[in-house]
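Chapter review: from sequence to fold.
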Amino acid sequence: MHFAYDYIARCMKRHVGLTPHQYALRLKLEEARRRLVLTDLPGERIAEEVGFPDYNYFIRVFRKQTGMTPGGYRRWKQGTT
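The token string follows.
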């Protein structure tokens, strides 16, 4: 594309409201939330499949965005405590 990353980041921030990194994290977390609800796969496997090779980092990012751990989110969406 021959554009500088900073230029693309500014354009995305202006038009989408997110930087490329924030946008990529949002997509990964949306897919992780979907898989947590629709599958019985362990959280570690889901994290790896959506692009988080470090499970602890995945938990931190997930908790920051949703206010709960991946396991807590799964239990909440499935209606159990």
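Two observations follow directly from the output. The two ends are 49 Å apart (CA to CA). The helical segments are 5-15, 20-38, 43-50, 55-66, 70-77.
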